């Protein structure tokens, strides 16, 4: 099978984007892994498959696969690349686009400066929906928000979902943080039955942070959009941050806003096409 693809990135978090709007595309787990493989395939953190939606009022559906082949619920940087793709390929002339993922409905728009702004919906704190098993654990309350001690991983985490699961840890110096050692231990911690994305947050000021994320399946990526949203929301709830925060990831910057506790989280950032090509799968 010969497949056309577009390679894109959002702040260095990279994607293989596949267009299934004209004809259905059924890929095996092995084929998805090949696409994501940096030596034997194209190479990407995630593979995005764009389809037309059959839901009234919704323009597209997009499916997200980690480069291990697992389908996941949400991808912030990928959602911005999705918009760039459908606009650049003439699949829509709308400037505000509604797209459904496996468990969410997002509204996205192109900003005048070429960046993309995404309504990432409201964060979820219900532990059962993250999911996180807190049985027998006592949280440390900071401003009424819980920090959960994961004794066997040696860390304390804020737990929430942005459609996908996140555990956020505050560190003094993110460049010195033991992301490669602690990230996998948190990612696969038994209290997260679907595993988790592990964020390492350094607060620079009330409106500026540095962030590294060890992503579920993909390992440390150069940026994680949902991770940035989760880290800022946790930082606001814990009283460390204001409601509009510049997030510096290793691959670029994202602006995250959470206007109030009942509002959606807004993410603004870049979406870039790197190249297009064909691969024999
Ligand atoms: N890179 C993403 C998140 C991709 C999915 C994540 N690895 C998961 O398994 O939940 C982003 O920008 O949000």
From TrEMBL:
Q: Where in the cell is it found?
A: Cytoplasm
Its UniProt entry gives the catalysed reaction(s) as: (2S,6S)-2,6-diaminopimelate = meso-2,6-diaminopimelate
Q: Which residues form the active site?
A: 75, 224
Instruction: Tell me where it mainly resides.
Output: cytoplasm
Q: What does the record give as EC number?
A: 5.1.1.7
- Which InterPro entries does the record match to this protein? DAP_epimerase_DapF
Q: Name one Pfam family in it.
A: DAP_epimerase
Q: What class of enzyme is it?
A: isomerase
Where does this protein act, in terms of pathway? Amino-acid biosynthesis; L-lysine biosynthesis via DAP pathway; DL-2,6-diaminopimelate from LL-2,6-diaminopimelate: step 1/1
Q: Which UniProt keywords apply?
A: Amino-acid biosynthesis, Cytoplasm, Isomerase, Lysine biosynthesis
Tell me the GO molecular function terms. diaminopimelate epimerase activity
User: Where along this sequence does the record place binding of substrate?
Assistant: 13, 46, 66, 76-77, 164, 197, 215-216, 225-226
Hey, where's the site called Could be important to modulate the pK values of the two catalytic cysteine residues on this chain?
A: 166, 215
* Gene3D superfamilies for this protein: Diaminopimelate Epimerase, Chain A, domain 1
Q: How does it assemble?
A: Homodimer.
List, alphabetically, the HAMAP family matched. DAP_epimerase (MF_00197)
Family classification? Belongs to the diaminopimelate epimerase family.
Question: In UniProt terms, what function does this protein have?
Answer: Catalyzes the stereoinversion of LL-2,6-diaminopimelate (L,L-DAP) to meso-diaminopimelate (meso-DAP), a precursor of L-lysine and an essential component of the bacterial peptidoglycan.
The protein here is known as Diaminopimelate epimerase
* Gene that this polypeptide is encoded by: dapF
């Amino acid at each position: 099978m010969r497949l056309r693809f577009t390679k894109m990135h959002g702040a260095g978090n990279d994607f293989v984007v596949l267009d299934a709007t004209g004809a259905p595309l059924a890929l095996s787990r092995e084929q998805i892994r090949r696409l994501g493989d940096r030596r034997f395939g194209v190479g990407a953190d995630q593979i995005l498959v764009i389809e037309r939606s059959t839901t009234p009022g919704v323009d597209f559906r997009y499916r997200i696969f980690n480069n291990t082949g697992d389908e996941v619920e949400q991808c912030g940087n990928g959602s911005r690349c999705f918009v760039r793709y459908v606009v650049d390929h003439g699949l829509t002339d709308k400037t505000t686009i509604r797209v459904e993922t496996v468990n969410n409905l997002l509204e996205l728009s192109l900003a005048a400066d070429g960046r993309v702004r995404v309504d990432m919906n409201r964060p979820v704190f219900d532990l059962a929906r993250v999911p996180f098993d807190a049985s027998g654990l006592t949280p440390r309350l900071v401003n009424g928000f819980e920090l959960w001690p994961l004794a066997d991983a040696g860390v304390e985490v804020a737990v929430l979902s942005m459609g996908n699961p996140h555990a956020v840890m505050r560190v003094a110096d993110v460049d010195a943080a033991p992301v490669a050692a602690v990230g996998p231990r948190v990612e696969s911690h038994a209290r997260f039955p679907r595993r988790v994305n592990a964020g390492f947050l350094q607060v620079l000021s009330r409106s500026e942070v540095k962030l590294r994320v060890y992503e579920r399946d993909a390992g440390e990526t150069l940026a994680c959009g949902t991770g940035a949203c989760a880290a800022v929301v946790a930082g606001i709830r814990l009283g460390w941050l204001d409601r509009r925060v510049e997030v510096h990831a290793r691959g670029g910057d994202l602006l995250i806003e959470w206007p109030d506790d009942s509002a959606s989280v807004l993410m603004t950032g870049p979406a870039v096409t790197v190249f297009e090509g064909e691969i024999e799968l």
